[in-house]
Amino acid sequence: MNRAAVRWLPRAVVGLLVGAAAVLAWREGGGADARVPPPRPAGAASSSASSPSAADPGHGAEAYEVTARLVDKLGDARIDAPALASAETYLQPYWRKMRVPWLRLPASAAPMAVTISMRTSRDFETQWAVSVPGGDTWVPQARVWNMNEGSFDQREAILAPAPATVTYSLEVPPHARLRASPAVLAGTAAPTLFTVTLVDAAGADHVLSQTRVPGAEAKRWLDVDDDLGPWAGQTVALRLQTSVDKLAPGEKRWAPPGADEADGGTATGADAPPPLPPVPLALWGDPLVVAREPTRVPYDVLWIVVDALRPDVAASMHVPDEDAAALAAPHPPLDARLPAIPGLMPGLDHLAERGVRFVHAWSAAAWTRPGTLAMLCGERSGELGVDTREWILPPDQVSRWYGAEPPLVSRILRKSGVETAAFVNNFFMAGYVTVGLDMGFERVTDHRYRARDTAEILRDASGWLDGHAASRFFLFVNFNSPHEPYDAPKEFGARIPPPPAGPRDSQVRAYMAEGAKDDAAIGALLAKLDALGLTKSTLVVVTSDHGETLSSAHAGYAMDHLPVRFHHAVGNFEETTRVPIVMALPGVLDGGRAVTDRVRSTDIAPTVLEVEGLEADARMSGRSMLGLARGQKEPDARVVVTEGRASRAVLWGPWHYVSHTDGETDEELYDLEDDPGERRNVAHAHPDVVAEMKARLAAALANAPAADAKQDPAGPLPVVHLRFAGAGTAHHVTGVLTVGDGKHGAAVTVEAVGAPKEAVRVDGPRVDFALDTAADGLVGLDLRVDPPGAPIAWKLYLDDAPWPDGAVFAGPFGLPAVATRTGIAGDEARSEAYAAALPVVDPARDLGLFVTRDHPGDASPSTPASGGQGAVEMQRMLQQWGYAHGSH
Predict the structure, then answer these.
(1) Are strands 593-595 and 62-69 parallel, antiparallel or unpaired?
(2) Model's pTM, two decimal places?
């Protein structure tokens, strides 16, 4: 039973209903649970994701999931923060901060919701200097490029300058805990005290924890974990309070040892803040209420990215026959193809042996920011409206990015109660600098080093797993070693044999050694999952944001006089954009299979969502790879489009076409069968192929099927079933349906059920209809919306009067609608409506609209069948208890 549909039921009844529904649905095969079950391989037994028998015995279906994010709920809190205006003035010079961009809070609460990063490398922050052609040196400004060496821990937080009190009214779920990370950005002479107090239903105060932070401990997140379990089922007041504490006997007032560093260590003169703030700049970092219960998604996710890692560094990603064909081609690839070296990448190779590897995969971009956005959003950066040419983003573009609420998989999973964290070396994932964007994680720890970052990232990610082994999580880990400069420890270079078995070029060998360095960290993270008993319940993804140009045939300089070889971004060659994708999850993505179909990095996010039983966002142009992983064949190959700086490329059949938008570079066409190293541009020799590839690129950029497509890339569309019952009376039902959000294209096809075709009129995204209910049957509409996740809104009338309150029902048991009262506008509404069959409806007694929606991938054109005897029993039980239609 969908939790959104029963939120208003008493807890004891909810538990009983869920248990009864699960038993009846399993026994009778009808009236299945409204939530999408986790995917299963063919022949595997089906089970509810919330059942203890679900296929994740290592972790179990129960885990801590987030029930309340207190930063998000600031608008509902009672706030007393008299020092807020003074604190904001002092906070102004600190530049590693931004307002939480995804929240829409009232003016009284908005200034308190901040994303803020603290330097955790306590002793140093080093400004980089980069050599540029001509012997000059470029010193990047930290506020623009975020390239200073050091470690920085960014969290969403509540700014609560002492004294401040933030109070929430909270219904405490069973097995609940409060997790938060108090911190003081800039201390005062006296210590700061963080107090968590719970006021129970009887009005009694209970101090759950106190955290004392002396001024010397400023700029450090401290973890608090308070048990709320004793008050389960009560509506309580949860109070987060900051205050200035008294000095202990013998304790001295604190003073900074030298110049203050509140600006991140780089501001001087007029930009520098005063030595001490007037009040402690206190923060409640990422405060969450979590509860141990059957989770809304069945699996954890560990997503590992190795920046600039090509697939051919790993032996498991090679296809021997293809390697032999490339070497035998009329124009061999030279060092555009690396040799397979067993034992160089044992961690990734072992994962590939037990999971599924996609050996023909490409990133949607040739450099990091658009590559990262594409994999996390399931859309190319160009589709997202984020420039792929310029390093620095203009403010209006940044505002559009946040205003559009892009389909970041991190934010989609957050809405399902998943804790999200990222441990990275990726300076594009900080929204407070002009090259970066906030990518939806609650916490981002950025280790900005040229050599030691792998060890730092591994240490922090492993420690985070230790602390969250009992939680449902999405952990994103981004290593960076194969990104120049190449300086791997000798032990990894020693794994590479001398030529001809290994590459001749010393730089290429050093690059491969850097990949081996990060592979050791991958192996350590996989071992950590094993040690914590999480392997069977964790979807592991390993990929890269782009490849690297290694071929000596591609030496030279391009846009902004940047080198092409041993770099990326300015090139759009196949070797620059081809990436590894390996995914593993026992029982779902396993068996050591090699998928040879072409796939894209934009396909990863929809795959993760399908594995989790969630539907891909309607805007995602990528498609799930789960069917391919299970051996299904698609009638059309997936079109690969990659975006570089001032270039767009399309891969189709043996051809690779690159179009440049800088007005200076000729278009390129490569025959990958004849010339797998892309050494010969044959665009002038094949104008017919160029014309075809231009058309394919234009269609792909518009997300339109090519003229010769055998099937719509989206596949069969799920059906939304709307059925009207008139309680034995011929009522007149009219209404208007609208699909889409007005910003993105959407289309709808409609079939009348139990009514003449003339009863429905479709005008683009608008549907007008007029129906009469029948005494002996249901009437209604079947809708197919493209894209399937596009929102649907409806306005209904009964006998020319507004639709009566409480007369909309959803899901397999016809429960009173909560999220679907006026349409299907998001994940919660879709989940509420999911059903394998219509509910049991008596048209002679029941009055109302009954809404169901096919599970993802189920596009049967027929009207859903009756739910069977189990559904009938469940329906009767719900009616007798007064929780479903027909009970009055």
Answers:
(1) unpaired
(2) 0.85
